[in-house]
Amino acid sequence: PPGKPYDQTVKVWALGMEDAAPLDGVDVSLVRKSGKVVARCTADGSDGCTLVANADADADQAEPFALIARKGDDLTYLRYSDLRADVAESSTSGTPYIADTPYRAAIYSDRGVYRPGDTAHVVAILRDGKDRAPDTALPVDVKVVDPRAKVVHKQTLHPNASGMISLDQAFPAFADTGHWRVELAVADKPLASY
């Protein structure tokens, strides 16, 4: 319960190291850092067992921090801190859980760097929420933005039956150098940019 980390209900299964098969007769203890056991149970195969820590009548209100399992001469433990995956410094990405639009897109080009006078061939793959190609009547607004944040090309395209659209952007001989951007939107909601 919130505010009572010392009151825990923990469901435990014991598995064999060689074959990951459920084990019978494994004594499991829930312990505090002081070494005090706050709950015990014996794992029974695939049913496991349940540890219930209730500290209302206990003067020691410390949070349990580990499980200790014993069977015969075998002993092992699992600290709660070992279960946490610290992703704060990790590079993680993906689609949001709740999206603003029912569509998403991936954009790519034939190469990464262009010179004035070249033509960029840009392709986008569109998918709906169920990973299917959208209807061919779907209007996709495409904007090409130059390094000065000026829209140099604006067009509405429709995907083909496989959900793809393509755009060829010719750069004039006097084109500004820097980062050019292609933006896709459906119903004024951004899909992707490249």
Structure keywords:
single chain; 194 residues; mainly beta; four-stranded antiparallel β-sheet; 0% helix; elongated
Descriptive notes:
This protein is mainly β. A 4-stranded antiparallel beta sheet has the order 3-2-5-6, with no helix packed on it. Strands 10-9-12-13 form a 4-stranded antiparallel beta sheet, with no helix packed on it. The chain is 0% helix and 44% strand. β12 and β13 form a beta hairpin. It starts with 7 loop residues before the first strand and ends with a strand.
Structural class of the helices, strands and pairings? mainly beta
- What is the alpha-carbon Rg in Å? 29 Å
- Mean pLDDT across the residues is 88
Strand order of the largest sheet: 3-2-5-6
The helix content is under 10%
What is the count of helical runs?
Answer: 0
Shape: elongated
Number of strands: 13
Low-confidence stretches: none
- Measured by DSSP, the beta-strand proportion falls in 35-45%
Q: Give the H and E element order.
A: EEEEEEEEEEEEE
Through-space gap between termini: 46 Å
Q: What summary fits the major beta sheet? A: 4 strands, antiparallel
